[in-house]
Every structure is written in structure tokens, then in C-alpha cells.
Design a protein that fits this description.
globular; 2 helices; single chain; plasmid; alpha+beta
Length: 120
């Protein structure tokens, strides 16, 4: 299992309940680093970033890398500056979520998708 190198927002793209209120979530990491290949990421529009309360710097959702972990679990970090603490930035607008989903499916079809296991 691997521990993340740094705390970062992620887009939850799937969730399934497994045991009494616990879920396994599949997330796509968000980064400020431009992708080497545009097929690997989707840029987050500024309006979506504002809606979620993210900074104004350019950011991308990586569609070529998934992470799965138990929710709630040790991989969660509170959103910075929130009182009381919360662990989500909000809901992605449906159009942007559907675009991410399509790009994720395309990465899977092209065998460009990698999974990163996380600790319990």
C-alpha cells in the first residue's frame, strides 16, 4: 500500500458501500502541474474552481490515475481553513463531472489508466 506524497483535493468519481456505512471511493487527483500529455488530464475551469472554493491557479484533474480507499479513512484530510472541519469541497457541476467521466472511460479503453493502492 502507498501513502500519498502530499495532501491534495481529489474528484470522487465512484463510491460503493461495502460494510455498515463504510464505502470504497474511487478518486482522481487534482494537481497544479500541467500534464505532459493532454490525454492524461482535464483542466478545471475557473468557474468550477470558484464554485468549489479552490484557488485561482490553473489546475487539472488527472484522468489517467485513480486512487481507491475506505471512506471515512486515514487518507482523508480536512479542507484547509474550514471551521468546523469538513472533508469535501462540494459537488462538481454535472456537465464537468460527465466530461471527467468520459475522459476517464477513454483512458481506461486506451489502457492509460493506473491505480494507486492506499492504506486502510
Amino acid at each position: 500500500m502507498e501513502e500519498g506524497r502530499k495532501n491534495r483535493p481529489c474528484a470522487i468519481v465512484a463510491a460503493r458501500q461495502i460494510i455498515a456505512g463504510r464505502m470504497v471511493v474511487t478518486v482522481l487527483p487534482v494537481t497544479h502541474t500541467p500534464p505532459r500529455d493532454s490525454a492524461d488530464a482535464v483542466e478545471i475551469p475557473l468557474a468550477v474552481k470558484a464554485h468549489l472554493g479552490l484557488d485561482e491557479a490553473r489546475s487539472w484533474v488527472l484522468v489517467s490515475e485513480t486512487n481507491e480507499f475506505l471512506w471515512p479513512g486515514p487518507d482523508l484530510r480536512p479542507v484547509p481553513g474550514q471551521t468546523p472541519p469538513r472533508f469535501h469541497y462540494g459537488v462538481l457541476p454535472p456537465g464537468f463531472f460527465n466530461h471527467l467521466r468520459e475522459r476517464l472511460l477513454r483512458a481506461h479503453e486506451q489502457r492509460r489508466l493506473t491505480g494507486v493502492p492506499r492504506t486502510e
